[in-house]
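Checklist before submission:
- one chain only
- standard amino acids only
- sequence pasted in full

Submission:
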Amino acid sequence: MMKWLTSTPAQSNARNRDEWAALQVASRIGNVDIISRLLNSGADINVWSSRHNGRTALQAAAGNGHVAAVNLLLERGADVNAPPSEKSGRTALQAASETGIMEIVDQLLKLNANVNSDPSVFDGRTALQAAAESGHRDIVTHLLERGADVNASPSDNSGRTALQAAAGSGFLEIVDQLWRSGADINAPPASQNGRTALQAAAESELGAVITVPDGSTFERTALDYAKLNSHDNIVDRLHAYRRHGWTALQLAARDGRLDIVDRLLEAGFDVNAEAFEQDGRTALQAAFEGAHWGIIDRLLAAKADINAEAAAESGNLDLINKALGLGADVNNRPSP
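Returned file contents:
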C-alpha cells in the first residue's frame, strides 16, 4: 500500500473517506518516515482536508504534539499560517496552543506564526483562547508576551473569549491572569451557543469561582443561569439585584445555602438589602421561611435586622419563639 501511495503525486494526494490525504494522516500520527516518503513522492504539503474539522499536515502534527513531524514539515516549506477549516478548524499555532506543547508553540512563533489569527467560524479558538480553555498557563503567558489579544472576539458559533474559555473550564489561575491582563469580564458571548464569562463559570463542572476587584459589574442573569443548571458556584462580587428582584444573598438564604451565604457576606453583600416590592424577602426573612437555622444564626451575627412576620408565616413555633426572643418587631411585614 505504501509503495502505491508513493508511486506518483496523484497517489500521494489521494484522500480517504474523511477527505484526509495520506500526508495528513501520517502527520496526525507523527510518522516522520512516511511523511518524508510522501513528500519525496510529490505530496502537496499544504493540502487541506475538508471544511469540517479539517487540518493541513502541519496543523495535524501540531495539534497532536508531534515535535519531529512539525519540524520536518516546517523544513520542507509547510505554510505556518495556513487558515483553519471553517468548522472546528485550527491554525498550526492554535492547534499547538490547545495541545499545550510549548516547544511547538515557540517554534511556530519564531517562524512568524500569526498569534492573532482569526478562529474558524464554528467552534473556533484563537491561540490564546485555545490555551486558556485547555489550562496551559505557561502558553497563555507566552502568547500574551507575544502580543495575543486578550479580548479577541469569539467565533460566531460556540466561540469563547479567552476569559470565557478559562472560566468555563474552571482554570482560576488563568482567569486571574487574564483579568490582570485586561480581559473584559462583560465581553459579549458568541451570537450562537455563547456564554458570558460568568455564565461559563456557572456551567463549569469544575466549579469556577470568579473574584474581581470591587466595583466591577457582572451579568445580572448569572445566578439565574447557575441555578437553572443546578450548579453550586459562588460569585464573589455579584452585588447587583437579580432580574426578578432578589439579591444573590437573599436567594442563597432562601435556598439554604450556608456556604454561599458565608462567601457573599465575606464579599461585602448587604445583609439588610431591601426586599423586592413584589414577593420579595430580606435575607433573614427568606431564611426564616425556610427554617434554615445555620443561615439565620449567620445573618444575625452579621447584624441582620430581625423580623417576626416571616417566622410567623412559616408556622414553625421554634422559629417564632427564636425571632421573638431576639427582639423581633412584631409589626414589621415583608413585601406584599
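Reviewer check: Residues 154 and 302 are 42 Å apart (CA to CA).
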